[in-house]
Specification:
Layout: E1 3-7, E2 10-14, E3 19-24, H1 35-43, E4 51-55, E5 66-67, E6 70-83, E7 86-90, H2 101-106, E8 112-120, E9 127-134
Amino acid sequence: MEYKFTYNSKEYTLNSKNCEGIFFENDEEIKGLSLETILEALNSNEEVSFSKEYYAGKCTCDLQEKIEKYYCYLEYHFYIYTKEQEYVINTICKEYEDTSFNKLFRAGKIDKSHIVNITVCPECGTYSIEIEDCEV
């Protein structure tokens, strides 16, 4: 599985070969969530749009230009919802179009939300995925 997108006329491919890993807040993994699940979510939505973000850390490729104290990355984020630390649904899939966090929560289908940050080096295309707990 892979996901392709174009930013400023350059094509990027996200797959298992150029992924540095999935990093969970508090090292608490989510059952049923994998790189495959995340790439499927990205492919399921035509509205996915990466934007420039700046971070203090430099990519290991060492090709990024320093802008003041920061380095440019491409980033996209979306939310996933879980029940007892098991993946249930994400906010960019078709199944989510007719529902909301509140509806799912009231129905007892979910109990927690997480933000999925996908950060891509614009020079080499290496990327990482960070998943953090969210308060909704």
